[in-house]
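Researcher: Go.
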Amino acid sequence: GLRYLGYMVVLGIFPNGEFPLCRSRAFQTSDGETRLFGMPFSDEKSMWQLSWPMPEQQALQTAASPELLRQEALRRCRELHDPIPAIIAAAPPHLLSGYPAYDRPAMSPEELCPEAGLESVVTLAGDAAHCMSPFKG
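Model: Structure:
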């Protein structure tokens, strides 16, 4: 089954016109507990991913409301260097999503494709194909 990793993850999309840092490159910053990753999303928009430790029940409650997600993200980033607080504030609530982070055990080839048999080869590629959490590399 799924195992809670102890982290909340929030994604935001914002207009990048006022933030040259966000237009053409990815970046990361952290205060040692809260981690922010940002990257271009389109020509006019960028996205950020913010993560921090949070008890599971609190993460589930926070994830249920875009406004709670926004408030918690703003609170956690208010002391970070510029332009991070402004980047967080620039993402409107309707362009926020958040969820508690979970991990699961790796699947065996038989579990992935039971009808293929052991002689078949299955290749999965990309971030969606592995069960490694974003906090493991």
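Model: The helical segments are 56-63, 66-77, 84-90, 109-112.
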